[in-house]
Amino acid sequence: MKILVCITHVPDTTSKIQFTDNNTKFDKNGVQFIIGPYDDYALARAVELKEQLGASLTVLNVGEAETEPTLRKALAIGADDAIRVNAFPKDSLFVANQIAAIAKEHNYDLILMGRESIDFNGGMVHGMVGELLNMPSISPVMKLDIEGDTVKMAREIEGGKEYLEAKLPLIAGCQEPIAEWKIPNMRGIMSARTKPLNVVEPKDDTTATSVVEFKLPPAKGAVKLVDKDNVEELVRLLKNDAKVL
Amino acid sequence: MSILVYIEHADGAVKKSSLEAVSYAKALSDKLGGGDVIAVALGAIAEGELSKAGTAGASKVLHVNDDKLTAGIIQAHAEAVAQVYTQVGANTLVLAKSSLGDAVAARLAVKLNAGLVSNVVDLPDTSSGYQVKRSIYTGKAFAETTVSTDHKILAVKKNAVDLKTDGADAPVEAVNLSISDASFATNITSTDKATGEILLPEADIVVSGGRGMKGPENWGMIEGLAKELGAATGCSKPVSDIGWRPHHEHVGQTGVKVAPTLYVAVGISGAIQHLAGVNSSKYIVVINKDPEAPFFKAADYGIVGDAFEVLPKLTEAIKAIK
Ligand SMILES: Cc1cc2nc3c(=O)[nH]c(=O)nc-3n(C[C@H](O)[C@H](O)[C@H](O)COP(=O)(O)OP(=O)(O)OC[C@H]3O[C@@H](n4cnc5c(N)ncnc54)[C@H](O)[C@@H]3O)c2cc1C
Ligand SMILES: Nc1ncnc2c1ncn2[C@@H]1O[C@H](COP(=O)(O)O)[C@@H](O)[C@H]1O
C-alpha cells in the first residue's frame, strides 16, 4: 500500500498578513511558516494508517526551495520520503497538474490532502486531481478507515455528517477530528535529516488564473460598549443603528 | 451566451446561498448585456420550490429529477452539471461556496477547461479582461484575480451580491441525463443530520459560545437567545474538541467560516484562529467578562459582563421588542 500526502507551506495561523511590491507579493518578513493545519491532520492520519497497514508514506509539496524545512518537518512526523516539485504554486490548476503527474508515475493507493489550504482557501486541488486521475475525491473527510480495498469515511455536511464507502484508489481532503496533530519527537527529527527529499522539475506550465493585486480589508472601527445593566440599549442599537433585528 | 447556476437543496427547499448565487448570476448577466440565467437542480425536490429560483433572477430552471442524484455524490453531480452546461451552451458556471459545491466545482474546472475562482466576493470587472475579487487568507485579505480561459466558474461567497426577490416564478423543465455508473463509485451508506435546524453556514444570525460557558449544561442559554433571534448556534474549537457541542458547529480557521449579518460571541476570547472564521460578518457583538478579551477589538458592540447574568436579560429584552 502506498500513501501520498500533499502538504502546503503556509503562514502560521497567527500571522499578520501584509503585502509588498505594490501589493503584488506576500510579505514574508517576520512570518513563520507551517504545514497547513488541514494537511497536518491528513499527515497525522496517514502516519497512523502507515503503522496499522505497513504502508509507505510519501509527502509532496509544489513549491520553491524555501519549503524544504516544512517537508523535513513532515518527514520528522513520520513520512518515509518527500518530493518537492520545484516551482512557485501559480494557481490550483497548476498545482493539481503537478500532483497528478507525480501520482501517475508512482501509482499511490491513497492520496490525502487537507480540506483547504489556509492561504488561498480554495478547497479545490483534491477535486481537480481526482478529475485528472479519474478517481473519486471526497472532502471534507473527518473519519477514514481502510478495510481491505474498501475505504470507510465520514464526510462533514452542513448540519451533520454522511457516511460513505468507496474502493481504493481514492483522494480525500481531510479535516479534524480525523486524527490528532502529531508533534515530531527527537528521533523523528534526527532521522528526517537523512530521509530522501527528491526535487523534480514541473511537468506542465498551464494556469487558468493569476493574481494581479492583493488588498487588505478596511480597518475595523472601535467597539461601542454597552453597560451590562442596560442590555435594552444593545437591543436598541442593533435594531435602530445596525438594523439587524 | 448563458450563465448556468448549480443550485443545491436541503430538507426540500432550495438553499438560500444557492438563491444568492442565482442573484449573482443575474447581476453578472445584466452587467454583460443580457443573456439567459439558467438554474440546474439535481435530484428529488418539488417543482414549486424550484420555480422560486425565478424570484432570485433565473429565467428558467432545469430539473434532473433522478433519485440517484438526490444525495450529493460528488462525481455524479459533476458529470450531470457538465452535461447540462454543454447542452445549454453556457460559458460561465456560478455556484455558492459549500462543502458539496467546492468539491463539484473543482472537478468541473478540469472537465470544462474552465478557470475557477473560489470565494468570490464581488462581480467581475470586465472593463479590460476578466478580473474577479476573491477573499484569501481566511478573510484576512483579498486577491484581484484574472481568469484567462474562455469558460469560467465562479464559486461565490455569502453576501457577494444582494439576494433579489423581485423576479417572477421561473418555468421548470425536466431534463433526462444518462450518468455513467463509474460516477456512482462512492456509496453514501447513511447520513446523520439535524433537520429543521437553521444551517450554520447559511444563517443570517449566529450565536456562538466558548469555553466561558463553562459546560454543555449551560447551552440552553445560548439556544434560548438563538431561538429568540432566529439564529443558528456555533462554538469555539475547544468547545467542540471537548465534546460539549458537535463538530459541525465549530467556527474558525479550522472549522466553519460564517458570514452572517450578526454574529454574537459569548464567552469566547477571540483568538486569531476563531476570528478568521467570523471576519466576514457584518456586525459582531461580544459578551465577555474580561474587558481585555481580544474579541472586543474585532467587535462592533460589546458588553463587559458575566454571560450567565447578561444572556437571560438580553433574551428577555429581545423578546420584549417583538
Ligand atoms: C492551527 C490552529 C487552528 C485553530 N483553529 C481554531 C478554530 O477554527 N476555531 C476556534 O475557535 N479556535 C481555533 N483554535 C484555538 C484558538 O487558538 C483558541 O484556543 C480558542 O479559540 C479559544 O477558545 P475560547 O475562546 O472558547 O476559550 P478561552 O480562550 O478559554 O476563552 C474563554 C473566554 O471566556 C471568557 N469568560 C469566562 N467566563 C465567562 C463568563 N462567565 N462570562 C463571560 N465570559 C466569560 C474569558 O474571559 C475568555 O475570554 C486554533 C488553534 C490553532 C493553533
Ligand atoms: N503547493 C501545494 N503543494 C502540495 N499540495 C498542495 C499545494 N497546494 C494545495 N495542496 C493540497 O491541496 C489541498 C487543498 O488546497 P486548496 O485547493 O489550495 O485549498 C491542500 O490542503 C493540500 O493538501
From TrEMBL, chain A:
Keywords for this protein: Electron transport, Transport
Record's GO cellular component terms: cytosol
Chain ranges of the Electron transfer flavoprotein alpha/beta-subunit N-terminal domain: 23-209
UniProt cross-references to Pfam families, sorted A to Z: ETF
UniProt GO MF annotations: electron transfer activity
Keyword match Transport: yes
CDD domains assigned to the protein according to its UniProt record, in alphabetical order: ETF_beta
UniProt keyword Electron transport present: yes
Entry's family note: Belongs to the ETF beta-subunit/FixA family.
Protein name listed in UniProt: Electron transfer flavoprotein subunit beta
From TrEMBL, chain B:
Cofactor(s) in the UniProt record: FAD
GO terms assigned for molecular function: electron transfer activity; flavin adenine dinucleotide binding
A Pfam cross-reference name: ETF_alpha
Cofactor note: Binds 1 FAD per dimer.
One Gene Ontology biological process: fatty acid beta-oxidation using acyl-CoA dehydrogenase
Record InterPro entries: DHS-like_NAD/FAD-binding_dom, ETF_a/b_N, ETF_a/FixB, ETF_asu_C, Rossmann-like_a/b/a_fold
Domain Electron transfer flavoprotein alpha/beta-subunit N-terminal, first and last residues per copy: 3-188
Keywords carried by this UniProt record: Electron transport, FAD, Flavoprotein, Transport
Residues annotated to bind FAD: 211, 267-274, 288
Family from the record: Belongs to the ETF alpha-subunit/FixB family.
PANTHER family per the UniProt record, alphabetical: ELECTRON TRANSFER FLAVOPROTEIN ALPHA, ELECTRON TRANSFER FLAVOPROTEIN SUBUNIT ALPHA, MITOCHONDRIAL
Protein name: Electron transfer flavoprotein alpha subunit apoprotein
Organism: Belliella pelovolcani
